[in-house]
Amino acid sequence: MGRKRHVPASRWSRAGKIAALAGAVAVTVSGCSVDEVLRFGWPVGVTPEAEQMRELWTWTVLAALAVGVLVWGLIFWSVAFHRKKKDDDELPRQFQYNVPLELFAVVLPTIMVCVLFFFTATTEVSVLAEEEDPDVTVDVVAFQWNWEFKYPEETTSEGEPISTVGSSTEIPLLVLPTDKRIQFNLESTDVIHSFWVPELLFKRDVFPRPEKNNQDNTFQITSIDKEGAFVGRCAELCGTYHSVMNFEVRALSPADYDEYIRLRKQVNPDTQVPYTASEALEEMNCGELCEPFATTTRPFTTDRTADSAVG
Question: Which pTM value belongs to this model?
């Protein structure tokens, strides 16, 4: 029979200290803040729905790490204490047909899956919840390769809904208020597109004739939590210029938003037509938030003789 090898306790203590030090160094040199570590790579959102999804992600990762630590611990424990020793003819202790162990291996994963499903389903229901009377409604119309944003409840002096359309030289601006429930109605005039604002941590495909294709083409956000400019993109490959089919969300305070809508309803005395989005923002003169043109992305040049693309 082989002699069992004794591992001094000091060696295990030294190994534990080295592992802890390596972990601390890894976190320190990565430059991650406490908030970034707790988000586990999840980006920062600007809506309550985004925060709910972040919390689901954080707890899911923590649960996965706990399972990983348990599995790794069992593996290392088996390797360290149940390996065959040199000159040892006896087999390690066998665990087949161990009913308690088999029940544990089946019941525990089943409980974990059920818990994960419950929290995923409740978060999804909350994120997709809609109220009958949102504060602001926006019709989002996607087409190759541009966007139109309409405010069906707000009309100009000409009796038409306020509308913003992009062009080859101007990125379309979707101006929204903070702290208000907003509903988006999505529709495409040609192929499938996708409405995506990364800071919302949410995107939805935009289908042509959604009512005839049994597609849910509406969603709501409870509020935008802070003012700012956020880039929006088409996230569905939709043709040649898909990559430059961008727009910008401009989130203003409720008072500034009301002023913006008031101007959009009026006629610009210089042009004798209702104010455009850029003209209304420029007229408001409220600092960086009222820059008349997009600040998060630029138009794509259509000059095919250009040396490089701009966008």
Answer: 0.76
